[in-house]
Amino acid sequence: MKIRLGIADAHPVIGKGIAAMLAPYPHIETVFSLTDWRDLGAELSRVPVDILLLDLHMPEQNVAGLCKMLRRDFPECRIVGMSATQETVEVKQVMRAGAAGYLLKSMDEEGLLAALEAVYEGKQYIDTKVKAMLLEDLFQHKKRLRKKDVLTRRETEILELIAREFSSREIADKLFVSLRTVDTHRFNIIQKLQVKNAAGLIKEAYKRGLV
Length: 211
Prior knowledge:
This protein is of the alpha/beta class. It has helices at about 10-20, 40-45, 65-75, 90-95, 110-120, 130-150, 155-165, 170-175, 180-195, 200-205; strands at about 5-10, 30-35, 50-55, 80-85, 100-105, 125. The chain has a six-stranded parallel beta sheet with strand order 2-1-3-4-5-6, with helices on both faces.
């Protein structure tokens, strides 16, 4: 196994550091290290690589667009995104655009090797910290969906009217129920959504897609 590696990072010290870290491993060859993503097309045409380590925050770069373009023009090149931040939105965008992996720049030598070898074998690799974050995000999303189903049909109806800034009296008149009934429903909705007041209620309702 011989992994031909390309590095594209806006900070020269990062590229040099990665190349130095990998130098002792004979099965990995760093064939180029760039600091400007606009040079990538020409360099990949001149020197094909198996894996490209791509800085996701290079200046004037559209991450998703660049990944799609590289995957289209160089289908044999597998892309592993590198970032200094843990952003679920960024991870999802990059992976949907065709990247095979996502690493944090705080990665250690063991993690970098594991990522390169896994991606070379055709697998996907996501940094363990990022993977845990994605799982937590998925858990919270499912939790929100479950809570969405907790509201009754009448509570959902009243919540929609609250979001449209109807007063409790106006809601009572509109639904032909007593003011006390509306206030009871309002109290139950606040308890179920775990908010403190009407402002928090409306914010949470939009956040969860309830209205």
